[in-house]
Amino acid sequence: MATFKEYLRFTDEMEYMDKQIRLLGEVNLSEDQQEELEEVDKEINLLVFAHPKCPDCSIVIAVLEAMRRFIPSMNVDYRKRSEDKELLLQYSPEGKIPTLFIVDGIKVTRIFSEYPENLKELIQNSEEEKEKFHKGMFNEEIYKQILGYLR
User: Which PROSITE patterns does UniProt cross-reference here (predicted)?
Assistant: First the structure.
């Protein structure tokens, strides 16, 4: 099980580690969002396939880690696609990253793959929208998609 710190070491290039830390620092959850997260009172286990060099991953992981600060019972297991590809493909045949799963016993449910579902078509069809995604302009949608599975 890789922690966030171990996830950062999926690359040995400081540029990508620093970018991930910077993006995390730029995620500002409102007081209402913080309260919503603090109300999650069950153990949450997430399996996350991501890599710090992936710009889509960096923004999603920044939002996820910001959320995790307010849910002490949330466990996140980070995996590299290159090392656990069979496992990723078992639950998400596209094999894209980032992909987030919630694990409840033996039940594994995909939260989303690559982009939140309500943004996927918009971002895939527009470089401008993809750039906005990478700049954090869709963090609210990332937050909502993840939160929907944590309740």
Answer: GLUTAREDOXIN_2
Helix (H, G, I), strand (E, B) or coil at 29: coil
- Write out pLDDT tens, residues 18-58: 999 999 999 999 999 999 999 999 999 999 999 999 999 99
Q: What is the arrangement of strands in the sheet containing 74-79, beginning at the earlier edge strand?
A: 74-79, 44-49, 99-104, 107-113
Number of domains making up the chain: 1
- Asked whether the CA dihedral 94, 109, 112, 53 is positive or negative, the reply is negative
Please state, as a whole number, how many other Cβ atoms lie within 10 Å of the Cβ of residue 93.
9
Specify whether the CB–CB gap between 57 and 97 falls below 8 A.
yes
pLDDT, tens digit (0-9, with 9 covering 90-100), for 49-72:
999 999 999 999 999 999 999 999
Per 3-state DSSP, the chain is made up of helix, strand and coil in percentages (nearest 5) of: 50, 20, 30
Contact, 131 vs 124, CB < 8 A? Answer: no
| pTM exceeds cut of 0.85 | yes
Give me the domain span that covers residue 95: 4-150
Provide the residue type at 125 as one letter: N
